[in-house]
Amino acid sequence: MDKIQKHLLEEIADLHEVPQGAYSLRINGSLYGKNDSENISIVKKEDKPGIDIYIRPGTKNESVHIPVLLSQTGLKELVYNDFHVGEDCDVTIVAGCGIHNSGSAESEHSGIHAFYLAKGAKLKYVEKHYGEGDGSGKNLMNPTTIVVMEENSYMEMETAQIKGVDSTKRATTATLADGATLIVREKIMTHGEQFAETDFTVDLNGENCGAHVVSRSVAKDNSRQTFLSRVRGNNKCSGHTECDAIIMDDAQVTALPQIEANHVDASLIHEAAIGKIAGEQLIKLMTLGLTEKEAEEQIVNGFLK
Amino acid sequence: MLELKNLSYQTSEGKEILRNVSLKIDDRFVAITGPNGSGKSTLAKLIAGIYTPTSGQILLDGEDITDLSITERANHGISFAFQQPVRFKGITVKDLISIASGKKISISEACQYLSEVGLCAKDYINREVDASLSGGELKRIEIAMINARGTKISVFDEPEAGIDLWSFNNLIQVFKSMYERTRGTILIISHQERILDIADKIVVIAGGEVAAYGAKNEILPELLGAQAGCRFTAKEARA
Known about the structure:
The complex is a heterodimer.
Chain A (H helix, E strand, L loop, with lengths): L2 H11 L8 E6 L2 E6 L4 E5 L5 E6 L4 E11 L5 E10 L4 E11 L6 E11 L4 E11 L6 E3 L2 E6 L4 E10 L3 E10 L4 E10 L4 E10 L4 E11 L4 E10 L3 E11 L4 E10 L4 E10 L3 H9 L4 H12 L2
Parallel strand pairs in A: 1-5, 4-6, 5-7, 6-8, 7-9, 8-10, 8-11, 9-12, 10-13, 11-13, 12-14, 13-15, 14-16, 15-17, 16-18, 17-19, 18-20
Antiparallel strand pairs in A: 1-2, 3-4
Chain B lengths: L1 E9 L5 E10 L3 E5 L6 H9 L6 E6 L2 E2 L5 H7 L1 E4 L11 H9 L5 H10 L4 H4 L10 H15 L3 E5 L7 H17 L3 E5 L3 H4 L4 E6 L2 E7 H9 L3 H4 L2 H5 L1
Parallel strand pairs in B: 3-8, 3-9, 6-7, 7-8
Antiparallel strand pairs in B: 1-2, 1-4, 4-5, 9-10
């Protein structure tokens, strides 16, 4: 790994070196290294780019890192990663993509991640997207996430895109069986001429299953954001979707939360709020000695923390 | 010393809120009181730089600060506690106290400021200053921030508003100990007799003007007298 790649790895995974335990590290379109642990095996796909990750039933307190780094300008790739989380597991998966584009050609990483959670499995999935580089070439990321949850499984998904991604379209679909719980927390900041679209579809099929989809975003400069979220209650279930956005400068934000009840005992809520930073928040921080610009940064950083 | 010279303020619609207010504040603890709508909060906001006076001057230790921004005044040693504290999403109590003190502070330092306002520090230090906190809790955190700043002038806009009776007793203690511990000037807008009672001097504002200004011993008995409401009319004060 060179200096740029190490920096990307730090940005997306807080890692300084190849991680301990199970991991798969992909750099510039090919597998750089991988490691299995006793309970987690990573198998390279034969028919297409990507990996299958098998987590043995009952595995507890283990983590898997699967970072992707792109530092070669103009590289475009589509990767399929499938995660098979066994019954009664309690594990963390840390994914993320960092692009450094110093050339003039577009760099693009599109990952299709599918999660299969067996009965009673518990998963925390963390994904961070980051772009940088002084070239004119754009950094594109288009992640697709498919979540299939069996009875009483639990998944927390945290995604963050804070800097440097010029265009992103994120599509997430989830289906939940009886007693399953899905929590999604998304954080996005766009600036310059960036565009970000997120699209969630959650089918609450099982009895007593539930989902929270929460998005917080900040749109600066001329950037544009679209938030779409469909939560369908097809059984006795609870669903909640929330979008909270700060708009600044000449940005545009569209929020389209949609809830659909197909069962009399489905309880669904949606909330969406878009607004600029409240003047009184700026004034308060200025009376503490911050300049207006510093106050703005504090508020935005806090909001996305 | 804080000096206000012929300070007037009109709203953008032309409504006169304050007229020709002149005050020299050189005591340690000065309370400003007066009827609702008399212009007290406006006066506090003029001192903090949130509003700009239509005419007149504000001097701090002889320096004209009338044209300084909110930030510049804060850095010149003026602190302002809001009547209705502001809520923030994602910013914690510790973040705000750190910003107020102007440096990165340790957990134990932050806890010290919270304990002084009667909050059990460990329960609050990592809480977000958002809708999950009650009005009374926010008011105390607001006061803790002012303590953390430790500036020359601390202006409090009705610190008792929204505080329940039980907390109010503690609040009096907080101001008493602030008075004993600190060296700065405390300027407090209040309707509460018990707060007025711990002040050195009292300013009465009525109808946008200074109706009376003097030692607590002179002003307070008059305010509490049978005709208190009418005693300090602007007209009489001018006479």
